[in-house]
Amino acid sequence: MSKKTEIILKEGYPFIGTTGLVFLISILFRFDTFWQIFWLVIFGFMVYFFLNPERVSDEDGEDVVVSPADGEIIEIVETTERFFTNQNMINISIRLGLLDNHIQRVPIQGILKESSYIHGEFLSLNSDKASELNEQNRTLFENNRFSVVTNQIAGFITRRIVNFIPEGQVRVSQRYGMIMFGSQVDIYVPKDITLKVIVGEELKAGESLIGFIRG
After folding, report:
1. For residue range 92-111, what is the model confidence (pLDDT) as tens digits?
2. Per the domain annotation, does 17 fall within a domain?
3. Which pLDDT tens digit goes with each residue over 124-150?
4. Staple partner for 110: which of 143, 178, 182, 210, CB 3.0–4.6 Å?
5. Residues 135 and 41 in one domain
6. What global pTM score does this model have?
7. Phi then psi dihedrals of residue 94, to 5 deg
8. What positions carry a catalytic annotation?
9. Which stretch of DSSP H or E encloses residue 140?
10. Regarding beta strands 147-154 and 161-163, do their DSSP bridges make them parallel or antiparallel, or are they unpaired?
């Protein structure tokens, strides 16, 4: 029997429960209307933030790369990927807004080969040093044709990066992690990719096509 997908991630239960309780207290003890509305909005936001939608890519095959995160592309640059491959690759930086879904999805069909968590600082993502010094989780995905590296980077108000799956076989669009409350995800793809995205484009994790690997 297949495992039932959670409508709301269990990681959100403490936040939803706490804000829901405070809202209930504000009603029972007849707090000022402002505070009742305030805690209702916060409770509703927590429910929305931890929603766990199903995502399916329209593209499949070992040559396809899809977005690992919701958000806006803020930079596309050729650089050296120094975490795992030490190869020249294209780095696509995706900035997640507060209202974006913060679950990360597997970008290629293949295996999750390796992951490395770095307990760093919590600088603002506007800082040039954030991608180097902030808390982050780096993941290497591979298939028979190429490798892709993702880097989940925590922001100023983020205090937790969660991993959902161990190393092993994965499918494209599968959930593999989450960054809580504002963040950035970088994806390093091979130089010979045929890109289908541009800076400023809004992406959906597990659905938006980043590109195809030529050959």
Report:
1. 999 999 899 999 999 999 99
2. yes
3. 666 666 677 778 999 999 999 999 999
4. 143
5. no
6. 0.91
7. -115, 120
8. 183
9. strand 136-142
10. unpaired
